[in-house]
């Protein structure tokens, strides 16, 4: 009998210093290297080398600024689930590409399950989300069903699963 094929790449091995660096950078990606080094208990040159290694190994993939959508007039967030008609499955990549270009789309998830997509949108108000759904989803003959849920609170945080390994 043959061995089963591996399910994906092996996890990257991280030590306690790598984990501490990741945690601090997740809290504040703009922390100066000297402060980061002090916080994790290594020299600045060691810290810089560790951060470079984390980037090269694909652990850190980008640095970003979190923008307050309300400050830009987007006071409402919603999650829109989308089901594509069975005969239109061949259009899923095209639909995904089109949705990602819409300025309201903050995140787009391609799902396995009852729904095909989950779209996180940031909009001005309920009329704006209504127009987004009508113009971008309901008007598309490939879309069988949409369901819109309003977001009352949205928090970004290091997921519980990542916290356990860090």
UniProtKB/TrEMBL annotation:
Classification via PROSITE patterns: HTH_ASNC_1 (PS00519), HTH_ASNC_2 (PS50956)
Keyword tags: DNA-binding, Transcription, Transcription regulation
InterPro entries hit by this protein: ArsR-like_HTH, AsnC-type_HTH_dom, Dimeric_a/b-barrel, Tscrpt_reg_AsnC-like, Tscrpt_reg_AsnC/Lrp_C, Tscrpt_reg_HTH_AsnC-type_CS, WH-like_DNA-bd_sf, WH_DNA-bd_sf
Residue stretches spanning the membrane: none
Example GO biological process: response to amino acid
Family matches, as CDD domains: HTH_ARSR
Domain of life of the native organism: Bacteria
Domain HTH asnC-type: 14-75
One cellular component (GO) term of this entry: cytosol
Entry-linked Gene3D superfamilies: 3.30.70.920, Winged helix-like DNA-binding domain superfamily/Winged helix DNA-binding domain (1.10.10.10)
Single GO MF annotation: sequence-specific DNA binding
Listed PANTHER family: LEUCINE-RESPONSIVE REGULATORY PROTEIN, POSSIBLE TRANSCRIPTIONAL REGULATORY PROTEIN (PROBABLY LRP_ASNC-FAMILY)
Protein name stated in the entry: Lrp/AsnC family transcriptional regulator
Protein's organism: Agromyces albus
């Amino acid at each position: 009998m043959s061995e089963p094929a591996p399910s994906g790449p092996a996890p990257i091995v991280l030590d306690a210093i790598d984990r501490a660096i990741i945690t601090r950078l997740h809290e504040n990606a703009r922390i100066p290297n000297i402060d980061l080094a002090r916080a994790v208990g290594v020299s600045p040159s060691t810290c810089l080398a560790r951060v470079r290694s984390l980037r090269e190994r694909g652990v850190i993939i980008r640095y970003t600024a979190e923008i307050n959508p309300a400050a830009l007039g987007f006071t409402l967030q919603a999650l829109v689930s989308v089901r594509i008609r069975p005969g239109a499955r061949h259009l899923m990549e095209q639909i995904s590409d089109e949705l990602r270009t819409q300025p309201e789309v903050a995140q787009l998830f391609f799902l396995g399950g009852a729904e095909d997509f989950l779209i996180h949108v940031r909009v001005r108000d309920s009329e704006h989300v209504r127009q987004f759904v009508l113009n971008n989803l309901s008007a598309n003959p490939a879309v069988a069903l949409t369901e819109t849920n309003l977001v009352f609170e949205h928090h970004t945080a290091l997921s519980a699963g990542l916290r356990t390994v860090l």
